[in-house]
Design a protein that fits this description.
Shape of chain A: flat
Strand content of chain A: under 5%
CATH topology of the largest domain in chain A: MetI-like fold
Number of strands of chain B: 11
Oligomer: heterodimer
Largest interface: A-B, 20 and 29 residues
Strand order of the largest sheet of chain A: 1-2
Radius of gyration of chain B: 19 Å
Radius of gyration of chain A: 32 Å
Largest sheet of chain A: 2 strands, antiparallel
Helix content of chain B: 25-40%
Strand order of the largest sheet of chain B: 1-11-10-4-9-8-7
CATH class of the largest domain in chain A: Mainly Alpha
Largest sheet of chain B: 7 strands, mixed
Number of domains of chain A: 2
Number of strands of chain A: 2
CATH superfamily of the largest domain in chain A: MetI-like
Amino acid sequence: MSPLMLLIILLGLSTLAYQIGKKKAFAVGKQAGGTRQLHSRPTYYGALTALWAGIPALLIYGFWIAFEPSVITKIVISGLPDEIRNIPADRLNLVVNDIKNLVTGNILSGQVSPAIQAAADHYRSLKFISSAALAVVSLSLAILGIIIVLKLIKPTLRARNQVERVLRIMIITCSCIAILTTIGIVFSVLYEAIRFFKVIPVSEFLFGLKWSPQMAIRAEQVGSSGAFGAVPVFLGTMLISAIAMMVAVPIGLMSAIYLSEYANKRFRDIAKPLMEILAGIPTVVYGFFAALTVAPLIRNSGSLIGLDVSSESALAAGLVMGIMIIPFVSSLSDDVINAVPQSLRDGAYGLGATKSETIRQVVIPAALPGIVGSILLAVSRAIGETMIVVMAAGLAANLTLNPLKTVTTVTVQIVTLLVGDQEFDSPKTMAAFALGLVLFLVTLCLNVIALHVVRKYREQYE
Amino acid sequence: MTEPQSLKPKLKPTADGRVSRDNRQTVGDQFIDNPRMTCRDVNVYYADKQAINNVSLDIGSNEVISMIGPSGCGKSTFLRCLNRMNDTIDTCRVTGEIKMDGHNIYSNEIDVVALRAQVGIVFQKPNPFPKSIYENIAYGPRIHGLVENKTEMDEIVETSIKRAGLWEEVKDRLDQPGTGLSGGQQQRLCIARTIAVGPEVILMDEPCSALDPIATAIIEDLIDELRQHFSIAIVTHSMQQASRVSQRTAYFHLGDLIEVGPTSRIFTSPRHELTEDYITGRFG
């Protein structure tokens, strides 16, 4: 029986168990004088049966699938003739690969010797036994679970509490996975960054003005000594983000004000989803829009008035990134502006304020914390944005604030440092992790501040 | 004084001399001498639904007129017509004539901003701006350009808060947010905010319904004092409140103005059966 088939059968069995358990609960309830005599509602008895049928069997299934290949490989190797078994580990790996290829019917690297043929047969039979055993074990576990729970179903069985406890454990596991992943990412970045800082001092990285990460691969190579001053890179990020915010904040905020205060309902219902489509465009599409349309446009119009614009200008990347961020600002601001109570507007109108006075002096100040929060979230999005700048911003780490020049960003550098074949012990590669760590800390701070500001705003009206 | 409609021949008096429940025309003294505002045949529609039917009513100077009636009878809607607060509702349409100083407030010549400076409104729920107490009061005078310098503004803020009877409680913390005050204080702050613009008429839409009895008593005393300077129209659900603070009372029922008269008479000998039903708690 194939593993997939078995999985489907197990799930089916679990569903069946639910029905059986429920039916049994109704029967038991009837005997005791009505389902009201049961401790829990019949569906909970069904759910308990299903859980006992499913969970142990699925756990066994999971472990089995995870460890089966390595166990079988070990057995096959131990069964090989001595002269093959004693060759070095990397060549043994090739032999094992050959055996596996032979089993699945792929092309082999060499001649099929009788020993390998025998090993492959061995492998095949072990695999068959293993999957048969898995089917028997897991199915009998499932059936055993059903039988035990059916025996246990009595009016006094606290099925609901047990089901809810299991569900709680499942939910806790899910949230733990999310949190542990975050922690894991932080530690992996931190570990590599610390290795980097052992070679390059932190102060040089944070305050150095020259970024040129090319290192000599061989000792005798000349020219590339590597310079890891991250200031130009971070300055480039800030320049592009600043341009992006200069586009996104006014347009996003104004459109949010128009949508929430002036637009009639029909226009709003059409315009809001349309604007949110902007957020759904893949950033890689924005990237080639920036590189192929906006950047040449800026360069050509710049040269018309005699400006020297590089073809990968910060302006092009920043403008397009700003367009991408508009929906973040407008959508969140729209929500907070709508959350300003109508009574405040009425109060201002009642005093004889005009519409624009009401919006400028009452509504916006009241919504300001939320608007600031949305802008901060947008900034952290801009700083972390990768694809647009990879395609539209340059690689040259110029220390400049001129938007018409090429600059590079943290994310671009991380991508270029890690793409392709790299040595994982050279400072060049590890610099990517240091950049990533600093970037992570910056966006983390921005997010924390933004969330804090938004939460403070919420307390005001609830 | 115009002839009261109650004496028109088509009315069918009941056995005890009251106007029968079937009659929807206004009974009592809806017109007075020297009115501050005059409303004639006012109809209000929300989309297709008519909320107010042909209401005619005068609002006098230096009087408190209370508007009572069951929920949904249109009394708040009518109140909000008096300074065009209904303009903010897209589907709302007002016909008829509401005059102040001889001008129809719904005509194109009237600037709604100026109108609302003349006819202020206080809402059911206190709605101070999330600004300081001082700024809450200063906002109105500032947008209307009523003051030239800080000294004048300080003066307006102080007199307004004093008139609203809040000065002793807040004089040391004018820079604190207005939202930090208690409900009753917030409502008095909103009244002070309205007074600061220097209106002639103040509309109050159930100003005490969100307040406890003590705060309510303070505001009721305040309303009585404010009568010296302003005309006040107050919507209330509390008949006791109406009888305590107002000189005239108007009873609304399902969009019709049923009866108007001196408060003392309305609550002792109503002429309309519907009014009697309501004030005796027999309303069904």
